[in-house]
Design the sequence.
């Protein structure tokens, strides 16, 4: 059905007025859209693969117009989809070949060759979806079953524990339990740590592992070493940044003594260098260690202790390293020590999927493997078994723009193709609504929720989709959620003002916003006592506090005027008023001035996101109620759901996974590619933009059948520019 009634006027959905969809959704939420035939409420459905239309709400009685809906949709499906800005077909710039001779054999000839090449160094360069996992498991089974290798002398290193479990799971049918148990499998960290615990149990107490950043920060503060920092750094953000630079250096085996003779690029690196020896000293004093120390510890053990090294070298006769493109220097040097002298070292990876440079990974090791091992064989797996040809073509067109890579001629195993789309919602909220409408449509047509993934570059993209999925009661798993959005500091301030406008006696809200009014937390007890003495709400006490300076008095006068005015407004209008007249935006900017530019921008973006979320609500009460529900949802943990659920995750986390349908969020400059990479490019450095392109490549190649790419026209209230990657991959 293409028509509905709004305030007795007829709306006819045509390509010319699709830009009104966000507004009609708003009316829809208030139940103002009616069926022109039966006057019952209808709802707007504006997904991606179908044209927008109206349907009766579930509770409506049957109406003759229902039949026309099915007819209209069938017509749309049959007709060519118009290429307007509602959505466009995503066609690859370069087409790729399909595999000419398909066989039903479990392994393709090149995969077979990789399985049977067991002696000496071997580099398996494997394109996305080319069957790395299949080859690794088949190779392990071949070594053990056919060649009679003792499984205890085979080490298989995977990038995640999940991948190690998957490998073991697949081998379960082929190996005996004893053989399976004998295998040395796991991540670098888990294998190296086991060795350290075995060889040097007194030096590595698992209780003293600094698992998270906050534990490291706590150690720094409590050990007192920060006082020795010159120039001093105490802000949590700066210390965290310094710690992550230190971690990258450690993974590159750059110890403090190596760094003091090396020119450093940025002020952040200078701070990190000042902190580095102090952090190491604080750890050593308390016999603490972090994850990077496990790697360095194992490397140094093997390098310095000949007896230990010989023991492991004679025990481990065959090594396989998965995701080799993401190896770092310490890991690589240690692997070389394990592999010598026979060097039956098989490394498998895709240089196009190297996405962990910020943790010290370096694709140069995969690119330079044949130089380090001149006798190495190289086998290239170029057939993509996962994705339909157009998806392989999109990835291929995109990644060809990178310079530091091995060229590959990717082919697709599959013949039949599907349709991929770009879609252009007004903003991030509408992007989420369109995706959720599309998912609802696909679920109604038999798709399985766990075969759909919504991928994002950075966490701030996730909130709207998570909220829309929750509202639509679609089961979802949001992996790796960091601090819930509504608990972020700037967001708490905005919400605090709204809460106080509804209830000036809200103690939690007032405590939250005190800093924005330039009142110290130490005044809290005085505020409470005064409120009791004067019998007035807490917020009204503020102007009566003794010793206020004149700028504070002006600020508080404005604050109380705002509290008076705000209850008359919608939540979005109220926030606008608070940001501008209440000067909250200025305060947030000032407060974050000292922080790196991107962090400071992130705090103002949070305010803008809060405004975007508020726009969907008519009253402050309903918005605050919604926020409470979202916070409860965060606490109850939607991810623990056992039923099949739509996967919402970062591209980094999606590596190695596959889904029938992938939705990619926010393909705009500054999001993907990330602003950081664009900054680097402005300074003439290409590495970061190449890494962003690889990230995009990883994201595209997770899709088996369908890819939907969102390009919001506005993000965080600012006009966007389409990501450069779109033009690189698509023939528009
Ligand atoms: N010879 C083959 N015949 C049929 N299907 C295959 C074959 N090899 C691999 N596949 C299938 O192709 C898909 C991709 O394989 P796999 O996940 O091992 O790829 P990958 O190289 O690890 O991919 P990526 O690096 O992109 O994560 C899987 O669904 C796998 O079962």
Sequence:
């Amino acid at each position: 059905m293409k028509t509905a009634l709004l305030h007795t006027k007829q709306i006819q959905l045509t390509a010319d007025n699709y830009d009104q969809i966000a507004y009609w959704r708003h009316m829809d939420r208030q139940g103002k859209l009616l069926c022109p035939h039966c006057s019952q409420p209808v709802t707007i459905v504006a997904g991606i693969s179908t044209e927008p239309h109206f349907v009766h709400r579930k509770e409506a009685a049957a109406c003759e117009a229902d039949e026309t809906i099915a007819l209209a949709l069938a017509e749309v499906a049959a007709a060519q989809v118009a290429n307007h800005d509602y959505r466009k077909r995503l066609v690859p710039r370069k087409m790729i070949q399909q595999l000419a001779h398909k066989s039903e054999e479990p392994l393709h000839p090149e995969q077979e060759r990789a399985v049977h090449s067991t002696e000496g160094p071997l580099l398996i360069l494997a394109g996305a979806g080319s069957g790395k996992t299949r080859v690794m498991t088949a190779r392990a089974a071949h070594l053990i079953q056919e060649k009679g290798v003792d499984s205890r002398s085979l080490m298989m290193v995977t990038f995640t524990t999940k991948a190690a479990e998957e490998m073991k799971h697949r081998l379960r049918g082929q190996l005996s339990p004893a053989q399976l148990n004998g295998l040395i499998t796991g991540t670098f960290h888990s294998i190296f740590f086991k060795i350290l615990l075995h060889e040097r149990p007194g030096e590595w107490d698992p209780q003293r592992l600094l698992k998270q950043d906050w534990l490291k920060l706590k150690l720094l503060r409590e050990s007192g070493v920060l006082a020795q920092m010159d120039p001093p750094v105490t802000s949590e953000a700066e210390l965290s940044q310094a710690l992550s630079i230190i971690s990258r250096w450690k993974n590159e085996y750059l110890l403090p003594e190596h760094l003091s003779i090396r020119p450093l690029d940025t002020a952040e690196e200078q701070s990190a260098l000042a902190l580095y020896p102090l952090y190491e000293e604080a750890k050593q004093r308390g016999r603490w260690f972090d994850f990077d120390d496990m790697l360095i510890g194992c490397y140094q053990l093997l390098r310095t202790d000949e007896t230990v090294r010989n023991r492991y070298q004679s025990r481990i006769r065959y090594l396989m390293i998965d995701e080799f493109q993401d190896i770092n220097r310490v890991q690589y040097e240690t692997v070389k020590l394990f592999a010598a002298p026979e060097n039956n070292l098989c490394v498998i990876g895709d240089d196009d999927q190297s996405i962990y440079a910020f943790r010290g990974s370096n694709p140069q090791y995969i690119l330079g493997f044949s130089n380090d091992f001149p006798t190495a064989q190289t086998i290239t797996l170029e057939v993509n078994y996962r994705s339909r040809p157009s998806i392989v073509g999109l990835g291929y067109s995109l990644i060809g723009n990178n310079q530091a890579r091995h060229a590959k001629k990717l082919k697709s195993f599959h013949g039949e193709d599907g349709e991929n789309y770009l879609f252009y919602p007004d903003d991030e909220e509408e992007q989420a609504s369109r995706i959720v409408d599309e998912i609802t449509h696909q679920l109604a047509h038999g798709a399985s929720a766990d075969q759909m993934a919504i991928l994002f570059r950075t966490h701030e993209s996730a909130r709207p989709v998570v909220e829309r999925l929750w509202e639509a009661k679609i089961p979802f798993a949001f992996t790796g959620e960091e601090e819930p959005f509504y608990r972020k500091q700037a967001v708490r301030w905005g919400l605090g003002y709204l809460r106080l406008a509804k209830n000036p006696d809200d103690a939690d809200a007032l405590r939250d916003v005190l800093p924005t009014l330039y009142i110290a937390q130490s005044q809290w007890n005085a505020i409470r006592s005064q409120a009791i003495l004067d019998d007035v709400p807490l917020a009204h006490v503020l102007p009566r506090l003794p010793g206020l300076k004149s700028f504070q008095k002006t600020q508080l006068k404005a604050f109380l005027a705002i509290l008076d005015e705000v209850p008359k407004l919608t939540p979005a209008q109220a926030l606008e008023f608070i940001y501008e007249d209440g000067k909250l935006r200025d305060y947030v900017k000032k407060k974050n001035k000292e922080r790196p530019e991107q962090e400071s921008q992130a705090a103002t973006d949070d305010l803008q996101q809060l405004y975007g979320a508020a726009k969907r609500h008519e009253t402050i009460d309903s918005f605050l109620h919604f926020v409470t529900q979202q916070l409860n949802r965060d606490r109850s943990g939607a991810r623990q759901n056992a039923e099949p659920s739509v996967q919402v995750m970062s591209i980094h986390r999606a590596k190695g996974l596959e889904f029938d349908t992938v939705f990619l969020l926010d393909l705009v400059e500054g999001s993907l590619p990330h602003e950081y990479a664009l900054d680097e490019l402005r300074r003439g450095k290409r590495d970061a933009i190449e890494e962003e392109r690889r990230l995009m490549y990883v994201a595209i190649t997770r899709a088996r059948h369908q890819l939907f790419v969102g390009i919001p026209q506005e993000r965080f209230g600012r006009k966007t520019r389409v990501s450069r990657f779109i033009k690189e991959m698509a023939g528009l």
User: Anything to note?
Assistant: Residues 77-81, 635-639 have pLDDT under 50 and may be disordered. Residues 3-78 form one domain. The CA atoms of residues 236 and 282 lie 17 Å apart. The pocket of adenosine-5'-triphosphate is lined by residues 106-108, 111, 126, 128-134, 350, 353, 385-386, 656, 658, 701 (CB under 6 Å).
